Amino acid sequence: MLKIVTSKLLDELSQKAKISPRKRINHNFHDDLADPINRMLNAFEPGTYIQPHKHENPDKREVFIILRGSLVVVIFDDSGNPDDFVLLDPGKGNYAIEVPPGVWHNVVSLESGTVVYEIKDGPYIQISDKNFASWAPKEGHPDCDQYLSKLTDLFIRSQCV
Question: Structure pTM?
């Protein structure tokens, strides 16, 4: 069955993300979580928080391809210090990133309506999919907004250098 990404689908996902308590929503293209290649659209609104994590044991790559909006992929060292900020923004000519297994990362949405096409090695098994960083707040913790604000500020300052 053909799977087609349309403006209408992106609009619908963005609207769902806006009203979601997590400020994000995904739309799977894989029919089964056991699929060896998980493919999905992910709509992110500013303020969504994803705890920094890495994919290892089992090792998995994660690819983000920006379809619209702007998103920063933050890469961290093992101590939790941001090592790099990669801006995905079609208007700036940055379209995609592949994060290798074992690399600490998260994403920060900079613009309402941001949607990425995400590809990750499967199968998806919730308990082993992500190794969450102990040095960052867990999703839902009261410190998430402050942590996200700090990352956003660090990204903005890195662009001024």
Answer: 0.94
